[in-house]
Amino acid sequence: xxxxxxxxxxxxxxxxxxxxxxxxxxxxxxxxxxxxxxxxxxxxxxxxxxxxxxxxxxxxxxxxxxxxxxxxxxxxxxxxxxxxxxxxxxxxxxxxxxxxxxxxxxxxxxxxxxxxxxxxxxxxxxxxxxxxxxxxxxxxxxxxxxxxxxxxxxxxxxxxxxxxxxxxxxxxxxxxxxxxxxxxxxxxxxxxxxxxxxxxxxxxxxxxxxxxxxxxxxxxxxxxxxxxxxxxxxxxxxxxxxxxxxxxxxxxxxxxxxxxxxxxxxxxxxxxxxxxxxxxxxxxxxxxxxxxxxxxxxxxxxxxxxxxxxxxxxxxxxxxxxxxxxxxxxxxxxxxxxxxxxxxxxxxxxxxxxxxxxxxxxxxxxxxxxxxxxxxxxxxxxxxxxxxxxxxxxxxxxxxxxxxxxxxxxxxxxxxxxxxxxxxxxxxxxxxxxxxxxxxxxxxxxxxxxxxxxxxxxxxxxxxxxxxxxxxxxxxxxxxxxxxxxxxxxxxxxxxxxxxxxxxxxxxxxxxxxxxxxxxxxxxxxxxxxxxxxxxxxxxxxxxxxxxxxxxxxxxxxxxxxxxxxxxxxxxx
Length: 573
What we know:
About 85% of the residues lie in helices and about 0% in strands. The protein is mainly alpha-helical and about 575 residues long. Helix 13 runs antiparallel to helix 16 (about 400-425).
């Protein structure tokens, strides 16, 4: 029993290492994107340009590298669990050479097709953004192999620190470059004109340099990984002491490449489809809105430049403010999705189906505990949250409130989907997540093409399409998982009680908000902050008092015994 608990604690330690890093990364990303939106020359239109370029880049990245960490992690953990240490090293070396080549090809393709892809997205100004991001493809490819290797050895630290370092530099450099351009444009008119920074080009130039910052930070993160690898590349030798190393005959390079691609391609499919999903908005929102905007806003009729700018602004709200807010819960939950693949693979390699099922069940329950309050909280408190973060911009961008309220429901389904997909990959059902999401994406495309064209719905159609897309995918993968492995899933403790805790949270936070707004006035930041604080506190107390987590659930968390002891001491459990 002690051994079983220690395995669970090791699994959860990996989860919390990634979770801490991902939350920090998301907060840093949130901070600099927030700062950019508040720069007058950048704003929602700049976010739209940034989003068009970044989503196309993510599509290419998903094709070339996104499945790599999971594939390498799964293969290395499987070989090490079976005592095939030399084969694990061989896989790493072959994967490195393979994905350097693939990454270089991706960067070249992005340069050659930048202009064409920007035109297809409805705004040629995004060409520079794509060119600025092109070198990142090869950097990410190399980094992905190293991260996957260490993840397979249950060392989540290098991946977490790499992404954190990258995000710190990305935040700092992006703010430096954009504010530098803002300073030149507003205070050094002669210099601005000589550099081509005019009223018509300033937003585009800011968006380009924001992505130059991304490329530089990716390179810096890769340098960290190289240094870490040089210092710790013998870590796998220490594992030999704890396992029975077996005689092994290494596969040829050709066969190893086939094995890597046979696993990484299916694992990439879900990410590719997800990237296609994001690009559906990039292409449909901008292009269709340009058709319907003259009907919605007759004052824009005949002014082609104003129509393009307005369409980009509306898309910028969706890809900037809204995506920024709904992304944090996904960052918290990605820890479970990342850690569960090698954990489940190891259990199944050792024929320990029960442990694999327990880890899947636990991860899904924890994902729901994260998703429900985040989803309903963002919906209920959408306006005060936006007012708190973008003071005054809710009036100039009123569409942001309803867009966030609708999009908040995607959190529930994307978070749950994320964990179930990782579970399916861990048990070998690597094609299923992609196929399920593909069904959802086709559904979304149809809804976008119909709903955005309706003037009364317009941009909100994209948000509705996203909710339906992820709901569809979640229903499909949940059914596949249920039929594939027998997991213990208690409806009462996993769904009914969390919904009750979330309802209590929403009621208490709204009462706090309305009560304090009577004292401090409507839109008060103090009232909003207090309401958010009460939401966190009330939800935490409700989870404990409703006994959603068992004593064992608490104790497999890092420092879980201390947490449980404190709760017991203050008589909450």
